[in-house]
Structures are given as structure tokens and as C-alpha cells.
Amino acid sequence: MAEVRVGEVFQFFHKPGVAAVKLTEGGLKVGDKIHFLGHTTDFTQTVDSMQVDREPIQAAKAGDSIGVKVQDRVRPNDMVYRVEP
What we know:
The protein is mostly beta strands. The protein has no helices and ten strands. It is globular, with a radius of gyration of 11 Å. The termini are close together.
């Protein structure tokens, strides 16, 4: 499976389990499979929900800063890749 870099984590909120991601390339939508990769981070999950300014959204494009519910801890500067089928 090919992976396309779409952004980078700039903050992690532990209690709600949300990663703040700055999309730098391409876009992302609910249902996409994403891969978080960093020095100590390496997991893949499906995007179940995304938010911008606490409002749910279905899709985001390059330049957007979004919140993504994550199943594990992520760290600032972790890379985010969209997994292509």
C-alpha cells in the first residue's frame, strides 16, 4: 500500500485523545486510513471524526488545521500519511 504525506501533528490533547494536525499537502476526509509515524509513534487507524474550531467536518484540504480523534498517543512533529488502497 502506498502512503502519501498529508500533514504533521503540532499538538496532542491527552484527555479527549485528539491530535491537532496541520495539513500541508493533499487533503483528508472521514473514512480515510491514516498512518502516524514519529520517533516513538507508529500506528495506523481510520479517520472516524474530524473537527475545525470544535465543529465537525467531513473533509479538509491543505492549509487547514484540524483535530482528529486518535486511538493512541501522538507527539508534536509526528508525520501523518494517508494510506492509499
